[in-house]
Structure formats: structure tokens, C-alpha cells
Amino acid sequence: MTIARCIMRAQLCAWRRRPAHCVLGVFLTALVLPLSWAFAQVPPPQPALSDALPSQGESSIKVEGNQRIEPDTIRSYFHPSAAGRLDAAALDAGLKALIASGLFQDVRIRHSGGLVIVTVAENPVINRLAFEGNSKLKEDQLKTEVQSKGGGTLSRAMVQTDAVRIAELYRRSGYFDAEVEPKIIELPRQRVDLVFEIVEHKKTGVKEIVFVGNKAFSSTRLKQIVKSGTTNLLSFLLNNDIYDADRVEADRELLRRFYLNHGYEDVRITSAGASYDAKRKGIVIAFTVDEGPLYRLGKVDVQSNVGSVDAAALRSGVRTAAGDVVNAEAVDKTVENLSIELAKRGSPFAVVRPHLDRDRNGKIMNVVYSVEEGSRVYVERINVRGNVKTNDNVIRREFDVVEGDPLNRALIDRAERRLKALGFFKTVKVTTEPGSAPDRIILDVDVEDQATGNFSISGGYSGADGVIAEVSVGERNFLGTGDYVKASVRYGQYTRGIDLGFVDPYLLGNRLSLGTDAFYSQTSASTYQSYGSETYGGAITVGTPLTEDTGMQWRYSLYRQSVSLSPALMDCSPANPPPGCYANGEASVPVKQAALAGPQWVSTLGYTLSYNGLDNPRNPTSGFRSDFRQDLAGLGGDVRFLRSTEDARYYQEIAGDVVGMVRAQGGYVTPWGGQPLPLLNGFFGGPNLVRGFAPNGFGPRDLTPGTTQDNVGGTQYWATTAELQSPIPFIPPESGLRFAAFADAGSLWGYRGVGSTPALAQSLNVADSRTIRSSIGASLIWDSPFGPLRVDYAFPTSKASYDVTQRLHFGYGAF
């Protein structure tokens, strides 16, 4: 009811009673009626959206433009405020969320009456994702790299990101010039084909590795330390000339550790980066080194701050001595040795901390290994993660601690080194996290499996075996158990053979290795011997580590050996030879006796005591290695002898890149039980002892006229070698090629074969001299992907008159 109508009604009632009041009412009515009419023409004010939607929220949102996506899905991106209202902030947040979803090309919001209108333009669907022009990288590899997927929605921003990711993948593979251009092909019904067109261009290799600031070590020496290499003729085999940022960072750490192990405690690798050289169309990697001074050890001592620990009893475990060049690895090894010894002595929580006191003026570093009380922390759990192929127990058995044991950091570090040394994993990382209580810790072992199988076909020439080819297949982590299996077939001009081997490195969960081996070997007559031989059998070995560097291996072998000889070389009787029987040649009496004796079974029990302190087993530059072997034959079988051999080598860096090596060898074999020594079980001198001599080239020899004058083997020998090895100038160090100069000397004597019996001695003329054989020469060594290869050229400087020389010698395999 308007104000005017109210007034009129009031006046109508008042007119009957008080006319004066009616006159006043008429006046007021005339004044109010126009105003009431004017106000009636103005619409009432509309409330704000938030006021209109006190609790409805999404129900007042209208969606337009959607074709595939449900309206409720779009409304779900809008969330009312705590008061249940869609205010401006809520609408803005919903708008941003819709855009960020990647489902729409465009999103707009407007108001209409009491509604919020959301208008969308949907992104098209990717009908097909394809790659064109890629030949170096497979399509499956590229698909895993991009985020755009077939059947998903197209996001132009994501497509550009994918193109960048593909180009980065090519760069990591060495193709820095690769071009990636995405093409979008429109199809009906909001569908598109997404095609990445790729122009790969040529592979971009590392053209040069530069070292700046190095003075103590040459760039050639440092190139041997890093894993990155430059493009050369062998790059297709080595596969190390592709720029990889992660590998460069790892090289940086390798360089730092190398300097720390050679006395440069203040070393800093200030930068390690790469740049693209457009002129050379390749990468230049540069390492900047701040070496600092060379430190030597001054005072070396062990101190104990734990009442129950006697410092004097621990000093035998110290691996560093006054006057030595500071070696960070030796310091770490000492900490490990002392920590293990403390655990054995009943102090598992004691901590060994090396305190290094630098005297920069005197370039001396004093080291005190301090034994201190550690926190009582226990290993609550060991988590093994990332191993897809390798079984958990293969990883856990490398730890000398189990759940519930006291935490010993030295043992954890040693386990990490063991895991890395297995060669089963690309990466190994051991970290800790808090356990369920303050005195509990959880060990997290993160690994990444890598291929452990190998297949190789190799061929070459050996002075003893002639032209030879070998096919080998092996697996170092058989079925993820950590067991080693290998099979090889060898076929050569004068030799052939088969080897089958299996090793379980942890017998029944203990640090005992069990190995079995089956073998067959056959040799034929050559220019170095008139007879052939055949050997087949098997062996069982059990090995155990005594320390980290020392190990013992026990073995039992049973094999059958025999000598074969052409009938034309054994038709003359020793006592009364027919006239002219020597005209066609005749074998030596010991050889004929061995052939006539027929096959013999040899049963031996033996052991090997090994010490390996080399810094690098395959390409050592420092350290000492020794192998002492002893075998006793006669526990069954047909022959009886005791054989002992020793082979020791010592490596030391002489100057710059030159490494010196000295080697000493010796052996002694003696028959027992009244038997002569069988021909095949003696020692034969050749290039394995003194280079410059042919296989079977020196040692006791039957010089009886008319015979083949074979080497009949000796019982004692010694040999020494002095050698200098160096990389070849202008040849990339990563190629593995080295040059060596050497001098060898040795002797072999002591014939005790069948021909040494009085009945046959009259028909023999065995020259058995202790004459020293020596030579000097040079070698080309190639640490190839197929294994070590070596070519030696030696000039004999002293020999016996009947020795057989051979200046050029080819070898393959371990040396």
C-alpha cells in the first residue's frame, strides 16, 4: 500500500468527524501522490551475487560452450567462501583453476541476473601422437619423455614444453644441433594429430677436455682420471665422448678425490662446465683446479678418550706413517680399521675421528686419530629400494650390521663401497632417517640395477697359440642371486678348448665363495713343440677373505692329461735303434715316454694366498700385489708332485704420467713317492718369464742328435721385470693405449723327468743350465673393451746357445 493511498483512506475517515483535518489531508495527498508515482518507476536495487547465493553456490553457475566436459565438472572448480558465498575472490580462483587444468583454450566469466555465466572453449583431443625424422632415438623412448599423450587434450603450452624436452634428450645423447618442431593437424569434431618433426643432424661429441690451473699433474694424467672422453677412432667402442652433465659432475668429484689421495688437502675444483664450439661443432669441457700445496704427514698418533679403550692396542691398525704423502683414502681406511677393531673389543659405540692439523708454512699435516664416546644408536631397520633385478639378500649380505645392531658408521661406509664394487648397480646411495625412538635409526639403501651380462667374440694372434678366436658369454648376477656363471669356447691354430664356470660368492649366507669349473683343452704340435696334449677335468674352489686386501682360496682339482705324438717321431727304440730311423726325425725320449705312458689322472689339493693393494686392479698406478700358490698332487690319481709358485708386482708413479713396475716370479716343483715328474707338469721358459724368447724357448732341452730337440721342462725358475709405462703422446688417454719400456731377466733349470732315470740317461743329452736369460724391449698396451691386449718387441741380451728366441710377441687376456 502506497503512502498516498494510506493518506486518502485516513482522510476519508476523518472528513466525517473533523472537516478541518480533511482539508489538511487533501493538501498532503496532493503533495505525496506525485512523489509516490516517481519512486514507483525506479526498480528496486538488486543484491550482489554473494548476497543472492547465501547457500546455493554451484547451483547458480551456468556453463556454456562445453561439448565433452560435463557442466558439473566445470562447476566443481568454483568453491564458495567460508560464508557459503561465491564472492569475487572465489570466482577469480575458479577461473585460474580452469585455465590451469589444461582442458580449455579460453575461459570467460560474466553475470546475468542472479546467475554467473561461465563460457568455455575446450581444447581439442589428440587423436594421434607421432614422431617423424627420428632414427637415433626410438619412438618409445621419446613417448616416455613427453607429457602430451594420444587420447588426451591438447595444450599448446605443454606441446612447446615437450619440444624442449625432446631437444634436451637429444642433447644428452650427443646431438646438440637437433631441431624439434611440433605440427598440429586439425581434424573434424575437435580432434587433432600432433606430430613432432625432428631433424637430428650429426652427433655432437666432446672435442676437447681442458684443465686449467693444474701444475702437479699433467692434463694427460688427469684425463685418465675422468670418465668423460673426446671423440676419436675408438669412440664407437668406448662410448664416452657424449656430453653428459651428470658425468661431468661425477668427474669433478673424481678429480677432487684424486688430489686428496696424492697429498693436496686444500684442492678445490672451482668450476666444471661445458661450452659449445660452433667452429669445431663440438663440446669443450673445462675443469678449473686450485691445487694448493703438497702435504706430508708429520706426527701420527692414536689417542683414546674412552676409559675402557687402550690406544696402544689400536696402533697396529693405522695405515698412515710420518713422512708419507697425505692420502685421504688411507686416512679413511685407518678410521674404518680402528672402528672395526673397537667393535671387536666390545666398544661398538666408540667413534674414531681423525683430527688434521695443517702447517701450511711447513707443508706438514699432523694426524691424531681420536677415540671418543659416541651416541648409543641402534639400527632399527634396513630398507632396500630400487632393486628390480637383484634380490634383497644380495644387498643386505654386504652389510656387517643387521637390524638391532649398534650403528657403526665405518661399517656402513664399507658396505656402500662393497655394493659399488660389485658392479651390479649404476648408483648406490646409503642414507639414514630417524627411527621410532631417539636411539633408533633407519638405513635407506637406494640402488639402480644395471646390465651385468656380457657376450663377446674376440680374435687375435698369440705366439704360443697362433691365430685364435674365442666366444664367451657370462652373467655376473645370475637371476639376481649375485652368482657368477660363464661359458667360453676357444679355437686356435694350435689350441682349442671349452671352459664352464660357476661361482657362488656367499656360500650358505657366509663370506665364503664356492666355485666349480669344468674344462677341456687340447693343443697340437707346432714349431715350438713336437707333441700335442689333451687335458679335461674339473675343479672345486672355496675362498674366504681374511682382510679387505687379503684372501685365501682352497681348491681341489681332478683332471686327465695325455700326450699325443706322430708315429713317425717314435719309431726308433732307445737301446738299439734301426739303421736310418732318425732320418725322418725322432722325438726326445721324455716325450716318447710321456706318449707311451698314456692318459694319467692328476688329483691335486691346493691353495692360493693373495694380497691386493693396487689402486686400480685393471690399470694400476700404485700399490702391491702378491699371489702365492701351492698344489699337492697324489691324493689319488696317477702322479705325485708338490708345486709352489710366487708372483709379486709393485707399482709406483715415477714422474708425471710415468708409472714404474717391478715384478718378481719364482717357482719350484718336486716329484715325490719315487716317481719322475710328468712332462706336462714341469715348468717351461718363454715370454711369460722373459720376453724375447719363444714359447718353450728356454729351459732344459734334449739336444740328442736326430731328435726334435724339445724343451723337456724344469723344476725351478726365477724371473724379474722392470718396466716403465706411459700414455702415448697425442693419443687420447681414454683410448687405453700405453707405451712401455722394459727389461727382463730370469732362468729355469732342474730337469727331473722320466729321462733322468739311469736306464735312459745314456740315450739323452739334456742341456740343463742356470744361464741367465735377459732382454730389453718396448711394448704397446691396449686396455681394450675386449680385454687387455699387448704387443712386445724384445731383444735378447743374454741366452744359452740352444735357446729359441722370438723378438715379436702378441698376447691377449690378463697380463
In a few lines, what is going on in this structure?
By secondary structure, the chain is an alpha+beta fold. Strands 16-17-18-19-20-21-22-23-24-25-26-28-29-31-32-33 form a 16-stranded antiparallel beta sheet.
Structure description:
With 815 residues, the chain is of the alpha+beta class. 19% of the residues lie in helices and 40% in strands. It contains 15 helices and 33 strands. Strands 16-17-18-19-20-21-22-23-24-25-26-28-29-31-32-33 form a 16-stranded antiparallel sheet. A 3-stranded mixed sheet has the order 1-3-2. Helix 11 (328-344) crosses helix 13 (409-422). The longest helix is centred in the first third of the chain and has 22 residues, at 19-40. It is elongated, with a radius of gyration of 43 Å. The termini are far apart. Residues 1-56 have low confidence and may be disordered.
Topology of this protein?
Blueprint lengths: L2 H13 L3 H22 L8 H4 L8 E4 L6 H5 L12 H13 L3 E9 L2 E8 L2 E8 L6 H5 L12 H17 L6 E9 L3 E9 L6 E7 L6 H5 L11 H4 L6 H16 L7 E10 L4 E9 L5 E9 L23 H17 L5 E10 L4 E10 L4 E8 L6 H5 L12 H14 L2 E10 L5 E10 L3 E10 L3 E13 L4 E10 L2 E10 L8 E11 L8 E14 L4 E15 L24 H9 L2 E13 L10 E11 L7 E15 L2 E14 L29 E2 L13 E12 L9 E13 L8 H4 L4 E2 L5 E12 L2 E12 L9 E5 L3
Parallel strand pairs: 1-3, 4-6, 7-9, 10-12, 13-15
Antiparallel strand pairs: 2-3, 5-6, 8-9, 11-12, 14-15, 16-17, 17-18, 18-19, 19-20, 20-21, 21-22, 22-23, 23-24, 24-25, 25-26, 26-28, 27-30, 28-29, 29-31, 31-32, 32-33
